[in-house]
Amino acid sequence: MMRPGDIIFTKRCPFCGEVIRLSELECPSCRDKIPESGVRKIGGYKCACAFPYTGMFREAVLNYKFYGKHSYGRAFASYMTEAVKARLDGCDFDVVTYVPVYGEKPYRFNHSRTLAKHISRLLCLPCEPLLVKIKRTQKQHSLSVADRRHNVRGAFSSPELSGRRVLVVDDIITTGYTLAECIRTLKHSGAQSVCCVTLCSAKGFCKI
Ligand SMILES: [Zn+2]
Question: How many angstroms separate the alpha carbon of residue 66 from the centre of ligand 1?
Fold first, then answer.
């Protein structure tokens, strides 16, 4: 049953745009279509993934990133946090960080930073900008698979992180080269462990 607050502060399902209750993340119809989260391996490192990058999930992410639906970030972070709990069992984190953009500005929307901030609140951990993008790169999706690794090589730097256990947040994992470079950078700076979480995976992931 709708309450007065539900009408004044309209909240919409991120997948179909239907009006939903404030206490809900999605409408009942879309809820039935949400699959189990999964995990991908990046080298020897784990990346939890909430959704496949297909159909209504792909459309919702594109609306979030490019069409001003920034309010979806809170719901997306909830799905990602559940994926972390289900798929990164046994991994501990001290800090949450995110994949930065070149020339990062606090006042400019960075979809991964917004997700990381919501996730850090849900996990009761700090969110810190541990990665800085120091090289302007081409869009990964515009390159051949062979060129993607080279494109992001040396793209990030990180402060001294001795002993810290880091969870890295990004929106979509495709080949995994960007996150692999982030992991390499964080480990080189002394991170004790690194795990990742993404909202979507553009390749299949395991349910293990
Ligand atoms: Zn829906």
Answer: 19
